[in-house]
Amino acid sequence: MKISLVESAATVPEDVYQLNLPTRTIGVLQQVRSRMTRDGLEHLMASIKEIGQKTAGVVIGLSAEEAEKYLQQVNDLWGTSYRICDFEPVHFSELNGNFYLFLVTGHRRLTAVKKLEIGTYLTELHLQIQFLDAFILQFHENIHEEVAKDDEARFLTVMWRKQKSMDEGLSLSEFARRHGKTSEAVRRAVRFTSLPVSVQKLVLPSEEYKKGVAFGILCELARLQEARQAKDKPYTEQDLTHLAYVLVVQQKTVKAAAMWVSAQIQELQGQGNMFELSIQHVVDGARRSVASGLEYDVRIGSEHMRAIARMHKDGGIRKVASGAAVNAVTNAVNLTTKLAPDILDGIKGARHAPIAREALKKVGT
Q: Domain of 24?
């Protein structure tokens, strides 16, 4: 078979250009994939360094008016606060106009190129593209790697609302089928994104939650909030944050949290307006299960620390001071100097609090 390179050449769509753009001209906004692995990035950097950037990233060019609208839609979706004054427009002489450039796909590639200080980035520039089209491009470029559940939830929610607005007869089950998801997965996604952005972000690692709060637990929290909203008794944003803590320390697993939430919803629906589960009731319930375990852990840890200190004082085995022992000492110091003041400030009227406060003063001096 003979094929003509000329006759078989693909036609470039109108308003699409292949360009090497200076990296500093490309605005990077919150992406569908909000996290990237370090190993994956380093592998990509090694590949680009060896053979160059072979795959173009997609960049959109928007007028000032279009950029304002686009940024607002991004802010509404991710809870960000981008402003057009944060970005510099680029003037294309052949088009006789200024355009704001925003990255749509190829976030990791752009990051790799910047770290390698190459200076320019191979792009496929699209003009006049709509927000939803850009959003779909972002999501589908990332399906070759598992997208974080919270990122996927935001994508499904946006798509469901948009497609439902365009087709009122679209059922949830049909939408889920189109995207290869179950109806329950879509419901969970919509519930999750109904939480305040600050509560959604609890899924990310933090000082309080090293691995973040499980996505499933936050979905159960959203399910309880949904039931309370139906009774005109929603939790506040602060209450939701506190309750997330309670679900983690008291229920521990998604399955246990789901059973607890179901029980609360049944009681709420059964009692109607006569019943009101306050956040204080929930916290009080958690206190009983947390206190005994917390005191036990601290007591056992203190006994271990005393044993290690005694061994060293008496000239014992020096290898006892392993990395684990040093970390334990560091954590104990951090607990005393950083967390203890916050805890004691919140329990000024508690029994033994004055004694603890005096002991803390001695540590500080």
A: 16-145
